[in-house]
């Protein structure tokens, strides 16, 4: 069946295009398995349109105002939107309402960056290989700013598999997730899937332990959320009781979470059944359909799903691009990246 389908074919409920039009937004997902970042937009109230772009091992995405940051295999790319360049995009004019052009690349080395965040002054990232949170630097590969208390030294050993972070509006590191709390080479693997951690960085506390592969911590309306991937759980962290409250259990490995206007956009991945770790998970028994599930937060009801039929099996990150309904993004290594020129008050496309 997949041979007759176009790449990244998907099925979705009719409510999805209508919702995206109502919210006036675009979904952005990254997939390291397929090496893509994909923008999903509504072309009308009945149809979705996708824009896949090649990026080697695409991981964390962050969107802030007119900037977009993307972690790839050994770099972090920073893009800036130019609606003026979008309007005159030479391949097809007046098709896109935004064009994310490459503006800076940080050469981090192969440090397995997971989540990233664009702050007011800095770009923050989870440096999984070195078991720390770091910020981008114009002088160094990166600058470490925090590590769990048990980590005795920075080393390229992925000791606890840090993966997720929350940075507040003042550029202060708030919460961090990890899959373990060891201090030796890949020691997190010993306690999978039950060794996950939630750290309160601001107050220097460990909030929760023994989590089932936590990912994608998020803050929304002064509430905290995360995913317990190994159980397919969408969770809220109760700040009064320091316990998790289940919002929804999904039959998938959940990873990648965006929250926008009371809707949760949850990434779903297939399980690598050949993996000695993932193949033993209870959710591996399900017929997992990779894609995105959208949940209405106040009612906790699933309002729609996008399920992929081919090409995509794993999603890392899910983000929302607000107020844009047909954005485009240019890979820094593509020829056209060098033809779009923007200066204050003017833009040009070179021949």
Provide the descriptors you would attach to this structure in a database record.
2 helices; 4% helix; single chain; 351 residues; Neuraminidase; 5-stranded mixed β-sheet; CHP03032
What does this structure look like?
The chain has 351 residues and is mainly β. Helices cover 4% and strands 47% of the residues. It contains 2 helices and 28 strands. It has helices at residues 15-23, 83-87, and strands at 10-12, 25-31, 36-42, 48-54, 61-64, 67-71, 75-81, 98-107, 113-118, 123-127, 132-135, 143-146, 162-167, 173-178, 196-200, 205-211, 214-220, 223-228, 233-238, 243-249, 253-260, 263-269, 291-296, 301-308, 317-322, 327-329, 340-343, 346-349. Strand 21 (253-260) and strand 22 (263-269) form a beta hairpin. The relative contact order is 0.18. The mean pLDDT is 96. Pfam families: DUF4915. This is TIGR03032 family protein. Residues 15-330 form the Conserved hypothetical protein CHP03032 domain.
Question: Could you give a quick summary of the protein structure above?
Answer:
This protein is 4% helix and 47% strand. The protein is mainly beta.
